[in-house]
Every structure is written in C-alpha cells, then in structure tokens.
Amino acid sequence: MSRPTAAAAAVLPEPVTPRERPSRRLKAVTAPARARRPKLAYALIAVAGAALIGAAQIGLSLAITHDSFVLADLNSQQRELNLQTNALEEELAGVSSPQLVATKAADLGMVVAGSASYLRLSDSAVVGTASGADWQSTIDPKGSGAVHNALLNQKALLAAETAKNDAPADGTTPPVDSTLPPPITDGLPSPTTR
After folding, report:
1. Burial of residue 62 (number of CB atoms within 10 Å: 0-12, 13-18, 19+)
2. How far apart are CA 11 and CA 147, in angstroms?
3. What span, in angstroms and rounded, lies between the C-alpha atoms of 122 and 76?
4. Alpha carbon 33 to its chain's center
5. Kind and range of the H or E element at 16?
6. Distance from CA of residue 172 to its chain's centroid?
7. CB neighbours (10 Å) of residue 99?
8. What are the pLDDT digits (tens) for 47-73?
9. What does residue 13 show for φ and ψ, rounded to 5 degrees?
10. Is the pTM for the entire model greater than 0.90?
C-alpha cells in the first residue's frame, strides 16, 4: 500500500452499530399528589404590608395638609403684624414730627429766641446777640402759617382721651362719635356674609 492509500484507510471511520435503546419502564399512577395549601402567614404579611403602606400614605397626606393650614395661619398672622407695624410707624412718624415737637414746646411755654448765641470757650465771650428771649416767639406752631400734618389729628386724639377719661364706671360703653371711623380691632374690616 502506498502512503496516501494507507493514510486514507486510517482516516475511514469504523462502521456504526446502532445502540441499544433503553427500554422504558411504565408504572401505574397511584393517587395524585396533594396540592399544597397556601400558608396563612404569607397572606397575613402581604395584607399587613399593604395596610401599612396605605396608612403611611394617609399619614403623610394629613401631615402635608396640616402643614398647609399652619402656613396659612402664619401668613394671616404675618399680614396682621404688618398692618400693626405700619400703624405704629405712622404713629411714630406723627409723634416725632416737627409740628408736634413745636406744639408741645409752645404748650410748655418755650419760645424761639431768634438768632442763636454761642459761648467761646477760649475767652468766655458770648458771640451773637447776647440777649435773652422775650416772651413772644418768632414761630407760632398753632397759628395761620402752621403746616397741617395729617398724622396729627388733634380732634381724634382729644376725643379718644376724653372718651377714655369719661368712661362710665358701671361698664357700659360710651356713645361713639359718628364723625370718627369705626375702630379696627382685628385686621381690616370686611362685610359679613351669610
């Protein structure tokens, strides 16, 4: 045999013999397997978990709703405090106005002497007119040249002081002056609706 023939003979596979098939063994079926009952603990855990999630959502929504009511109440208080602050600032502006200071000084008997005099410390000399003030003021804060200040409504102040001083001892309310606006006790007045 030649070399290529020997190589070809060596490569050929051996004939295939059919394998023996294993025989199947058949068995008779006995009773079917019992279906397993679901465990009650797993069902209870699932229901409890769902209830817990629902309760947490309800609690969170109640907390958010409560916070919004608290925020609305705080905004209302802030508006009320801003109104009070504005009223107090107007009252302070009226009390510290030059018109009121001049009026109070005139009520106390103080007068404006005219030009100012100065004392020079080096030689103790008086520089200026060096005359005392006479009892006639050069400025009359209550006269015809006085500047009107809307913050100083003297009639309203006098009426309020008179009403406070003239309050009856038996606890009844005194008659209200119809020229004055109604007092603001709790924020701005609003109409009542049904």
Report:
1. exposed
2. 132
3. 63
4. 69
5. none
6. 39
7. 16
8. 999 999 999 999 999 988 888 888 999
9. -80, 160
10. no
